[in-house]
């Protein structure tokens, strides 16, 4: 196996090698993740774990509508209805 010397960098006219090395050694800042639009609008993500049987029941009820809402929309509607009942009882 042949061993060769490290190749020398050819200098390019008009380019200051010290400025290039200074830029490389300067480094950069850590990327900052921007806020998601939903978080900025005051929405929070929520992970919900439901029993498969409960999801089946929800889907069956959703399909009985003329225009079946998404599960998300159906659950939001159910939450708002429950809040309306619960908050109505307190007043």
Could you walk me through the main structural features you see in this protein, from its secondary elements to its overall organization?
This protein has 4 helices and no strands. It has 91 residues and is mostly helical. It has a domain of 44 residues. The chain is elongated.
Please sum up the structure shown.
The chain contains four helices and no strands. It is mainly alpha-helical.
Give the SSE layout:
Blueprint: H1 17-26, H2 37-40, H3 52-63, H4 71-90
Overall outline: elongated
Topology, number of strands: 0
Percent helix, as a range, is 40-55%
- Parts with pLDDT < 50 across at least 5 consecutive residues: none
Radius of gyration using CA atoms only: 31 Å
Main sheet attributes: strand count, strand direction, barrel closure: none
Instruction: Output the structural class.
Output: mainly alpha
> How much of the residues is beta strand, in percent?
under 5%
Strand and helix order: HHHH
- The number of helical elements comes to 4
How confident overall, as mean pLDDT? 85
Task: Report how far apart the termini are.
Answer: 89 Å
């Amino acid at each position: 196996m042949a061993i060769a010397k490290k190749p020398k960098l050819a200098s390019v006219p008009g380019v200051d090698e010290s400025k290039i090395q200074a830029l490389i050694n300067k480094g950069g800042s850590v990327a900052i993740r921007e806020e998601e639009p939903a978080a900025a609008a005051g929405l929070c993500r929520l992970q919900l774990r439901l029993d498969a049987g409960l999801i089946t029941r929800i889907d069956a009820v959703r399909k009985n509508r003329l225009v079946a809402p998404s599960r998300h929309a159906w659950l939001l509607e159910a939450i708002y209805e429950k809040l309306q009942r619960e908050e109505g009882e307190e007043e």
